[in-house]
Amino acid sequence: MKKLLFISLLVSILGVSCKKSDPTPTPTPTPTPEPDKYMSLTPGSSWNYQTVDTSNNNSNYTITSSNTDTLIGSKTYHIFNSTDTSGASESYYNITGNDYSQFASLGAQLAGYELIYLKEKATAGATWTTPFMTTQVSGGQNVEIKADIVNTIDSTDLKMTVNNISYTNVVKVKTEIKNASIKVFITPTISIPLTVTVAQNTFNYYAPKYGKIKGHNELKISVQGQGTIIDNNSTTTLLSANIVK
User: Fold this and answer.
1) 200 by DSSP, 3-state: which?
2) Within a 10 A sphere around the Cβ of 152, how many other Cβ atoms?
3) Cβ neighbours around 212 below 10 Å, total
4) Within its chain, how far is the Cα of 106 from the centroid?
5) Which of 34, 92, 216, 232 is the right S-S partner for 103, CB 3.0 to 4.6 Å?
6) Where are the domains of the chain?
7) What is d(CA 184, CA 2) in angstroms, rounded to the nearest whole number?
8) What CATH fold (topology level) applies to the domain 36-242?
9) What is the 3-state secondary structure (H, E, C) of 139-191?
């Protein structure tokens, strides 16, 4: 009996010692979520803005991301539909790497141009320049307009509250118009330069996922012989947004 008990105990011990132990499970790493871009191109996303000028004139407009892209030059732009009291229009945006671009149309008689308005990972003090040049016919004569649009990252990682909504990691961008010039061509080879005076104080604020949340624009342009041709002082505020994932 003792012998049988010993054998049974030995078999039990051998059984336990020879059993494979379950390996410690390796935890599945949680993927690090991609940080939100500073604008959503997802169809259906929408933004409601209000612009107030120095005369306290309010104008509201809505921008909605469409489900359509368009090719302008060699670059693909996403189409946004804008609506305000004057009707509907389209705007065109592109995100390539860390560069955020808008293709701006200046009207049927003027060529549009691409403007990089934000560089996502640029540090405070970074600057970039977009040369601008267009021609138009005025009074039967060709008028050439040139300028440099200079953008500077004024501040990063800001915290802001806009319309009672808190935002973090906000980037503040300063925009300036420099080296503005206008020439009136009497003949293809003879031109008359006009003095252009620009006074400007323009800042835009961008937040992850939402894009532009606020903008302040003070711009006054005077041209020799024409007086003041642009006098704009306004603030644009994001009232609400519906960002589709």
Assistant:
1) strand
2) 17
3) 21
4) 19
5) 92
6) 36-242
7) 119
8) YmcC-like fold (2.40.360)
9) CCEEEEEEEEEEEEEEEEEEEEEECCEEEEEEEEEEEEEEEEEEEEECCCCCE
